[in-house]
Amino acid sequence: MSLKTKAKKLALLITNPDILFYKKKYLFIYSHMRSRSSVLSHILGSNPEVCGYKELHLSYKGYRSLINMQIKLAKDLKCKFRNKYLLDKILNNYTISDTILNKKQLKILFLLRAPEETMKSIMNMGIKTGVKWYKDPEKVVSYYCERLRNLEELSYRAGEGNLFIESKDLIDNSEDTLKKISYWLQLKEPLKTTYSTFRDTGTIGFGDPLGHIKSGVLKATVGYSNIHIPEHLLKKANESYEKCKLTLINNIK
What we know:
Layout: H1 3-15, E1 25-30, H2 37-45, E2 50-51, H3 63-77, E3 85-90, H4 98-101, E4 106-112, H5 115-129, H6 137-157, E5 163-166, H7 167-172, H8 174-185, H9 231-251
Parallel strand pairs: 1-3, 1-4, 2-3, 4-5
Helix pairs in contact: 5-6, 6-9
């Protein structure tokens, strides 16, 4: 880290005493790409008791990791941290230590979407963005299955007090699902199906880059009838999905 970067970091810490003082609450959304995690994190981040709305691309190994999280949020959102949940959305296999998982102030929301619509959505994103591996069904299925294995493993380590939500319920049963999350977090102001947009909303690398996220409203998107997933790959993904879903149901209580 350069002296200039260190100086900026120190200045941010001095001007944001909440980073060094006061107890914090942490909320991690653990999921996979195209799970509707972007719209859910925006709904959460629009609530006055939550600070955060996107992927921070951090591993969480110890206390310093949480400081880095707070610095990123302070730079982006300028929000006060006291009595708020600090949010990160984690869609890839970043490290999280038992030290972090054992914090009493940490809650984890596991979010899972069925494989066919997930894979078609990833491949459609590849067509729109030009990212090559997103368009390759073999690589997409490999990512999906590996990610679900990671979610399973984490569910064994995560302990009590967490929550599992199926992606389809955000659309098919929006009000009750958001009410369930609001109750779980003990939010004073219930979550809504409308939400704010932020600086990096719609920016590739931080969340949904396809434009739907900028609507500010939770709603279903169209299917992708033009995209075909080979049967043997779909079977493999379905097996991973059913296994992961059962594991999460059994472990998240």
